[in-house]
Specification:
The structure holds 2 protein chains of 2 kinds.
Chain A: H1 7-29, H2 32-57, H3 66-81, H4 87-109, H5 115-134, E1 144-145, H6 161-183, H7 186-196, H8 198-204, H9 208-234, E2 236-237, H10 244-257, H11 264-287, H12 295-299, H13 303-316, H14 320-335
Antiparallel strand pairs in A: 1-2
Helix pairs in contact in A: 1-2, 2-6, 2-9, 2-10, 2-11, 3-4, 3-5, 3-9, 4-9, 7-8, 7-9, 10-11
Chain B: H1 2-32, H2 39-57, H3 60-81, H4 91-113, E1 129-133, E2 136-139, H5 140-162, H6 164-174, H7 176-181, H8 186-208, H9 218-233, H10 238-267, H11 269-294
Helix pairs in contact in B: 1-5, 1-8, 1-9, 1-10, 2-3, 2-4, 2-8, 2-9, 3-8, 5-6, 9-10, 9-11, 10-11
Classes of the chains: A mainly alpha, B mainly alpha.
């Protein structure tokens, strides 16, 4: 029978415990860079988890999810620019704006399917991108700096890196919990039914459009909140955070980690940002024995390795990291 | 009025150029059912090859021909090595795999040509203006682009509708198993079609190169436009791609040229000049959203033809 002590569960638990204890490690070693990197990982993991709700569970191939990151971020930054610094106003505003945008985009896009859906979500994200570049008052193409991080009436000081990290982590875990509850509810069952066979679901009598739209709005809203976080993290927003390649990055995270699995996107975000961060060093080390002079230069071209690696994962490791853990765990237990 | 005619010609030129990109995309889309985001990389490669070969040979034309051959070869190799394995898979896999290829090509170009970008000068015999209508001067180079793309469009029409290869391509689009069962080497056919699409993208890139700078990532914006066109026109329809490309070319060019003035008239100077740049860039995406909402399969979808 299925035991709770599978490799996959152990690794997931280790990941969560590791994330919770990370500031302790930082306090001991004084390595602030790790904390900044992991704050970014946690925020992008939250965005990826939200995308996974529609992409992984409901099979809606949205190619414009980064727009919500941008919308949430811009709402926060613009309010800050106009003198509203309170997070109690900024964050609900970010949530409301992304929810409204998701409602409008979803209502129009979900009339199409397949490649057309991919492209229409992309088109809406591009609109948001150009909208942001056109806002001359808020920096246009150059982006907009935040004067200060969101304030919470003295309750939380987000300028403290550890506090901010825990706020992000708490929101990530909250998002995962929400997605877990949602996908195991009747609502989530219907969504997964839609993914496998939409015409059958509507033949049984489910109003699939409404279910899909609700999921789309929930995903967009959660991602908008992640956007408010990322604006606070970098103290800066720019249109480039909505460019279509950013949406591509989010999809990569979801697929790399494992589509339609609870913790997959977290693994995916971790893996992608780790690759971005450490692949140059790895290449550097790999090239050094053969060509010491060119090693540092070779490390700069890490995307030359990442690109084919993505293709390789698509071709041969569809389950992503989560699937790999499951497979390894399965093999292990059969030997016992 | 002169300005208006000139902008119309620019719109025509841009639209036809987009058609070259979209035609390759829609062929690959319609026949192999493959979403190829890396199509923009082939456009970029065409431009880089042309700039390099033109500098080597000292002749624009010779450089262009060599660049076309080179992109054709890259396209066919790419098909055999990578794309072939993606056929018949989920569209998500296509998006992801070809997204990886974009990273690969961008970085590869940076490795070979450096991060700086190149320039390809307009050949001297085209670097002047000609009088195309009484009293209206127009850049000879842009006019040459119009002529070349129209010739290519005619060539494509004849190739697809009037030749044996075209017959096989159309047959492959409607039922690939059946074509294979009838003894056609479908693998070779796919490689050829992909190579043709790559060469068309390369041609678009090398012709656009003297107008813009040749740089990394130049394909990333324009490939999205090409996708917009394929989707507006209806996937797999070359005729749809032509109509949609012209529509997008005109709306984008004329929108950027005249829309700001219209907005200023409508909304007043302050509001109009603020909203104009964003809105004129958004016009084609708005067009696409409207068309897809009204006709979710595009204007000339293969089913309703």
């Amino acid at each position: 029978m299925r035991s709770a002590l599978t490799l996959r569960n152990i690794v997931t638990a280790a990941l969560v415990i590791g994330l919770v204890l990370l500031p302790l490690y930082v306090a001991l070693t004084g390595d602030r860079f790790v904390l900044i990197l992991f704050t970014r990982i946690v925020i992008l993991a939250m965005a990826a988890v939200s995308l996974n709700l529609i992409l992984g569970y409901a099979g809606m191939m949205s190619f414009g999810h980064a727009a919500f990151l941008g919308l949430g971020g811009y709402t926060t930054a613009i309010l800050s620019f106009e003198g509203v610094h309170s997070g109690f106003l900024q964050w609900p505003a970010a949530i409301a704006v992304s929810a409204l945008f998701a409602l409008a985009v979803g209502a129009l896009s979900l009339r199409t399917r397949g490649v057309y859906f991919i492209m229409i979500t992309l088109a809406f994200a591009q609109m948001a991108y150009y909208m942001a570049s056109g806002m001359a008052r808020y920096g246009g193409d150059d982006g907009l700096s935040l004067e200060s991080r969101s304030t919470f009436a003295g309750l939380l000081n987000l300028s403290n890196k550890t506090t901010f990290y825990y706020v992000c982590l708490a929101l990530l875990l909250g998002t995962i919990l929400l997605v877990w509850r949602l996908t195991n509810s009747r609502f989530g069952m219907v969504l997964q039914g839609v993914r496998s066979n939409e015409s059958r679901m509507s033949a049984i009598g489910y109003p699939t459009f409404r279910y899909k739209l609700t999921a789309f709005v929930i995903a967009g809203t959660l991602c908008g909140l992640a956007g408010a976080l990322i604006a606070n993290h970098t103290d800066f927003v720019s249109p480039s955070m909505m460019f279509w390649t950013r949406s591509g990055d989010l999809i990569v995270m979801v697929v790399l980690g494992g589509m339609g699995t609870l913790f997959g996107p977290v693994f995916g975000a971790l893996a992608l940002l780790f690759l971005e961060q450490f692949l140059p060093t790895l290449i550097n080390m790999a090239v050094r024995p053969f060509n010491p002079a060119g090693a540092a230069k070779a490390g700069e071209y890490w995307q030359l390795v990442l690109g084919p690696l993505l293709l390789f994962i698509v071709l041969f490791a569809r389950g992503g990291i989560d699937g790999l853990l499951k497979k390894l765990g399965g093999k292990h237990s059969s030997h016992e | 009025m002169t300005l208006f005619i000139e902008q119309c010609l620019n719109g025509l030129q841009f639209g036809l150029l987009l058609f070259l990109l979209a035609a390759g995309l829609t062929l690959v889309f319609g026949i192999m059912d493959l979403v190829n985001l890396a199509h923009g990389s082939l456009y970029m490669l065409g431009a880089y090859f042309a700039a390099t070969f033109a500098a080597w040979t000292g002749s624009f034309l010779l450089g262009a021909v060599l660049a076309l051959v080179a992109t054709l070869i890259v396209g066919m190799v790419l098909e055999v090595v990578a794309m072939r394995r993606l056929y018949g898979r989920d569209h998500l896999d296509h998006v992801l795999g070809t997204f990886g290829l974009i990273l690969f090509f961008d970085e590869g170009v940076r490795l070979i040509w450096g991060p700086g970008g190149l320039s390809l000068p307009v050949p001297s015999w085209l670097n002047r203006s000609i009088e195309i209508l009484p009293g209206i001067q127009y850049s000879a180079y842009r006019f040459a682009i119009i002529v070349v793309t129209l010739a290519v469009a005619a060539f494509l029409y004849i190739l697809v509708m009037r030749t044996r290869i075209g017959m096989l391509i159309r047959a492959g689009a409607s039922n690939r198993e059946m074509v294979g069962a009838l003894g056609v080497n479908i693998k070779l056919l796919y490689t050829l079609v992909f190579g043709l699409g790559a060469a068309l993208a390369g041609l678009a890139g090398l012709m656009q190169a003297p107008i813009l700078t040749v740089q990394i990532g130049m394909g990333e914006n324009i490939v999205i436009l090409a996708f917009v066109i394929t989707v507006i026109g209806g996937i797999g329809s070359i005729r749809g791609a032509l109509v949609a490309a012209l529509l997008v070319g005109f709306i984008d060019t004329l929108g950027r040229a005249f829309f700001p003035q219209i907005l200023v008239e409508l909304l007043g100077r302050q509001a109009g000049s603020t909203a104009a740049p964003a809105l004129s860039s958004m016009l084609i995406y708005i067009l696409m959203a409207v068309i897809l909402v009204v006709k979710p399969q595009g204007l000339f979808s293969a089913n309703s033809r």
